[in-house]
Prior knowledge:
This is Putative acetyltransferase. Its EC number is 2.3.1.-. The chain contains 5 helices and 8 strands, in the order E-H-H-E-E-E-H-E-H-H-E-E-E. By secondary structure, the protein is of the alpha+beta class. Helix 1 packs across helix 2. The protein is globular. Coenzyme A binds next to strand 4, helix 3 and helix 4.
Amino acid sequence: MTIRLEETTDWPAIYAIYAAAFGQSAEADLVRNMESDRELILSLVAYAEEPAGHIAYSHLVLHETPPIKACVLAPLAVAHPFQNKGIGTTLVQHSLDRLRADGYDLVTVLGDPRYYGRFGFDPKLAEKLETPYDGPYLQALALSDKGNDARGPVSYARAFAELN
Ligand SMILES: CC(C)(COP(=O)(O)OP(=O)(O)OC[C@H]1O[C@@H](n2cnc3c(N)ncnc32)[C@H](O)[C@@H]1OP(=O)(O)O)[C@@H](O)C(=O)NCCC(=O)NCCS
């Protein structure tokens, strides 16, 4: 299995992965809308003869602490036959390494803390932010010391407003 940047020809398979994982097209639509808005900062595919999983990140604007470079992890899915084989973990770890190397200070995610906690995502760090998703499922991970100082209101990529 290799992890690489998404290519145009991957899209039908990625769409199918999200549709099967979530039973709807909203997550796949989110990826495409963020891309057309130029708000997608990283889109990676786990490839095992076919796309087996996908992860995406978009810009997050921190209004009170703008020098902190922040992004949002969403969405993430692994195709059903490939689940529980470490592919999701590899996608998250690989992408976090890339973001750290690209100078990102903070990542937020909305999801199950039992999954994201293993990567260091913490609901406590996210409590200092004011987002449309505040609550126990909102978590944050500092990729640098600076990331721990993030606070206040944030703006997600426009396409998130179309979810639900
Ligand atoms: C969640 C998901 C991305 C994990 O990817 P994966 O490749 O199957 O997971 P990994 O093999 O890396 O990790 C497996 C571990 O994650 C746990 N896990 C899997 N899905 C989980 C979930 N939704 N919530 C909490 N824990 C979960 C497994 O129980 C397993 O735990 P263990 O290591 O203690 O045994 C994948 O199962 C998936 O696409 N699910 C459907 C879509 C989804 O729920 N996406 C949002 C994620 S919050």
